[in-house]
Design a protein that fits this description.
The protein has 22 helices and seven strands. The protein is of the alpha/beta class. Strands 4-3-5-7-6 form a five-stranded mixed beta sheet, with helices on both faces. The chain has a two-stranded antiparallel ribbon with strand order 1-2. It starts with 5 loop residues before the first helix and ends in a 14-residue tail after the last helix.
């Protein structure tokens, strides 16, 4: 029994190691993770599960699925800190199981491809790291794989239940991150004539009709939330969720704008160590043009390439937008290694393992080289943790392996060790420079004591969940025309948070100082400032 299920047991154990390490070592990171926690917390406080809010205002940037799931866990286990960082990683684990299920449909006669694909996926360094991060893209990836599994159920077995899977996947994908799920699923579904070499789908009009019906079914699921939310949230919120966010990113990005070639420049490092493993390139050379004659390989290529191009043409780019297409790479690599007879080579493992060894030695020696621009905080990091990936890399080289399966397991374990070491390395720095729980708890005490609290800058809800705040924080600006002075005069019994690059001043108005990324977050008591409001702005006098 254990031998039959060695693959899911292996990748689940590796997943547990990664997630447990991340939860133990890493605080909720501003501004993204703390913002999403704040939205979920405000949903919990308000009991409003239709319209998300952030700091008292409607939050239109993301649909509610992630926030619903955080609230579901709190409803079952009570409000706690361990459940929210588990939600996205659970979807990452689901992705591994869905990857295995898809490979079983693509290559039912090759069980080893199904066993290796999720392990290869987990071994890709960017996927390994993002397995532990609280963001929406793992939810989108899981919905994408679920929908494509539905397509393969229809293609391989003629199973009409696959269309229900596709509709549900689209619907929950919309609830996870909006209509981007259609970009992830529809291209490969519409390109059926280019990848169905065997013509398993004879009635293609029926195929496309059912795709349309599935999209409509998914739209019904998404609109069952969006329509009530648009009505309850008001006109501005309604316009944002139905048009503003998606159109803005596609046409003229207002966030994360980068040149069209940016993904081409970064995709290689994201797929380490596989792209520097010579065995992969030998297998690809051996496969040659015959690979393109296989429906399964075409499916993977026509899934990966059009979406990669589409995201390259969209102005708003982030690395994690590519996560849903990573399994396509894992499928092709698994197929190459299983079907192409490439000899197991210790020499081939030297390059990826040597890369990790060199990286580990560089990290361990860098604090002792007296480098000019080396940050002070980095000199005291526990670099000894990199003995772990270095040891695993040496094991990869020295161990006599008889199969490519053993090589893949060893390399994935090595990358898991590397990511664990990275977490342990940065744990002290993240705890001192990014953990804002202490300040957040103090702000809660101040609000409970009747003080109004304001923040001088754009406020992303950073303190709301960490301090379990029940009141919003006012957002102040030092820009000309902002009524900051009016707010200060109207709220004499208040506390104001501002960020200084300089050391905190020796002033009786300073109530609390928190280190944040080498700067100082300072809480000033407005009454004790006695009109010296320029202390709230380190860039000059207040206008």
């Amino acid at each position: 029994m254990l031998q039959k299920y060695w693959s899911p047991i292996t990748f689940t154990l590796l997943w547990i190691v990664l997630v447990a390490t991340a939860i133990y070592t890493r605080p909720a990171l501003p501004v993204d993770e703390t913002r999403y926690l704040a939205v979920a917390w405000e949903m919990w406080l308000r009991g409003d599960y239709i319209v998300p809010h952030l700091n008292g205002e409607t939050y239109s940037h993301k649909p509610p699925l992630l926030f619903w799931l955080m609230n579901l866990g709190w409803a079952i286990f009570g409000v706690n800190d361990w459940w929210p960082p588990m939600v996205a990683p659970l979807f990452a684990l689901a992705c591994l199981f869905l990857t295995r299920a898809m490979a079983q449909k693509l290559w039912p006669e090759e069980k080893l491809i199904a066993d290796l694909s999720p392990i290869i996926l987990l071994g890709a360094v960017f996927w390994t790291i993002f397995t532990t991060v609280t963001m929406f893209d793992m939810l989108v990836a899981a919905c994408t794989l679920w929908g494509l599994l539905g397509l393969l159920m229809v293609w391989r077995d003629g199973d009409s239940k696959g269309w229900w899977h596709l509709a549900l996947a689209i619907g929950f994908g919309v609830l996870a991150k909006g209509p981007v799920i259609l970009l992830q699923i529809l291209p490969i579904a519409l390109l059926l004539p280019l990848w169905d070499v065997e013509r398993r789908i004879e009635n293609r009009k029926k195929w496309y009709r059912n795709i349309l019906l599935s999209v409509l079914g998914g739209a019904v699921i998404g609109l069952s939330w969006a329509i009530p939310a648009g009505i309850m949230g008001g006109e501005e919120y309604r316009n944002a969720i139905f048009w503003g966010q998606t159109a803005g990113r596609v046409v003229k990005s207002f966030a994360h704008a980068r040149p069209w070639w940016w993904y081409l420049a970064v995709i290689g490092p994201l797929l380490l160590p596989w792209v520097i493993w010579p065995t992969l390139w030998k297998a690809a050379w051996a496969g040659g043009k015959k690979l393109l004659a296989e429906s399964q390989v075409r499916f993977c290529l026509l899934w990966f390439i059009p979406i990669f191009i589409a995201f390259s043409l969209i102005s708003g780019k982030q690395l994690h937008y590519l996560l849903p297409i990573f399994p396509a790479f894992a499928f092709v690599l698994a197929r190459l290694l299983v079907k192409e007879e490439i000899a197991v080579s210790r020499v081939d493992r030297l390059l990826p393992a040597g890369f990790v060894i060199v990286l580990g030695l560089a990290v361990m020696t860098a604090p002792h080289l007296g480098l000019r621009k080396f940050p002070d905080w980095a000199t005291d990091l526990p670099t000894a943790w990199f003995i772990l990936p270095i040891g695993l890399a040496l094991y990869v080289i020295v161990r006599p392996l008889k199969t490519q399966c053993g090589a893949i397991l060893s390399l994935t374990s090595m990358m898991t060790g590397l990511v664990v070491a990275i977490h342990m390395l940065f744990a002290p720095y993240l705890g001192s420079a990014f953990n804002l729980r202490g300040l957040s708890v103090e702000l809660k005490k101040m609000q409970d004591a009747g003080y109004d609290v304001a923040f001088v800058a754009k406020y992303h809800g950073t303190f709301q969940y960490l301090g379990r705040l029940e009141k919003p924080i006012a957002e102040l600006s030092t820009e000309r025309g902002h009524p900051m002075m009016e707010w200060l005069h109207a709220h004499p019994r208040s506390k104001v948070i501002t960020l200084w690059k300089q050391p905190a001043p020796d002033h009786p108005a300073v109530d609390y100082v928190q280190n944040f990324r080498g700067n100082n977050m300072i809480v000033f008591d407005v009454a004790k400032l006695k009109g010296d409001y320029d202390l709230l702005n380190r860039r000059g006098k207040l206008k």
